[in-house]
């Protein structure tokens, strides 16, 4: 069964850093584009980043550009999100999501990030 | 950025009755490859979203045929022919024609 398990969330102070990980299993990770999508408490969905299967092309939302870095290790079937200069507005559940023909067909359970002093 | 606008934002429905949600994009979602990358997702409370419809009208695996999508260009609709209890939650439209990918605000469906 295809599965995504995100981890690495937690409580961090404003200006701090956090690295999220997503472990993929049950499908061909190395041929899949991957995304991070977040959801602030009580709010809607916000796409924040996408990485192509080889990692050669990366896209970011303006809200995180210059602060967040997406990466992947196909040998480890893993996706990452390095988050720096965190702000209160980055507080959200972060989902690791598979891109399938330009739709989001597989979602992990998400990892919660809280930015607060 | 392409802005996705959903209406209504809240929809109280009666079990067994139909429901529909509209999604309008600020510009055409037709990709240069000829496809229209508009999808619909459903999120139940406390759960991650799940894909219902992709490329306007294609039902994803396991989605019942009482759920359907239609539309073209900038105007799209999700229809549920007969609402069941499992349909409660928030529905989002999403465009992937252009980066950044963008979502509608979400429409909350609840039982009257």
Whole-number mean pLDDT of chain B? 97
| Number of β-strand runs of chain B | 11
Q: Flag low-confidence runs of chain A.
A: none
Rg of chain B, Å, rounded: 13 Å
Question: Helical percent range of chain A?
Answer: under 10%
How far do the termini of chain B sit from each other? 36 Å
* Principal-axis shape of chain B: globular
Q: Quick one: how many beta strands of chain A? A: 11
- Secondary-structure-derived class of chain A: mainly beta
What is the number of helical segments of chain A per DSSP (H or I, 4+ residues)?
0
* Quaternary: heterodimer
Q: Strand fraction band of chain A?
A: over 45%
What gap, in angstroms, lies between the N and C termini of chain A? 40 Å
Largest sheet of chain A: 7 strands, mixed
Q: Tell me the series of helices and strands of chain A, N- to C-terminal.
A: EEEEEEEEEEE
Question: What is the typical, i.e. mean, pLDDT of chain A?
Answer: 97
Gyration radius from CA atoms of chain A, angstroms: 13 Å
Q: Report the β-strand fraction of chain B as a percent range.
A: over 45%
Number of helices of chain B: 0
Characterize the structure shown.
The complex is a heterodimer of chains A (117) and B (112). Helices cover 0% and strands 55% of the residues of chain A. By secondary structure, chain A is mainly beta. In chain A, strands 2, 4, 5, 6, 9, 10 and 11 form a seven-stranded mixed β-sheet that branches. In chain A, strands 1-3-8-7 form a four-stranded antiparallel β-sheet, with no helix packed on it. The termini of chain B are far apart. Chain B has strands at residues 4-7, 10-13, 19-25, 38-43, 50-54, 58-59, 67-72, 75-80, 89-95, 102-103, 107-111. Chain B contains no helices and eleven strands. Chain A binds chain B through residues 35, 44-47, 50, 59-62, 95, 99-105, 107-110, and chain B through 31, 35, 37, 39, 41, 43, 48-51, 54-55, 60, 90, 92, 94, 96-97, 99-106.
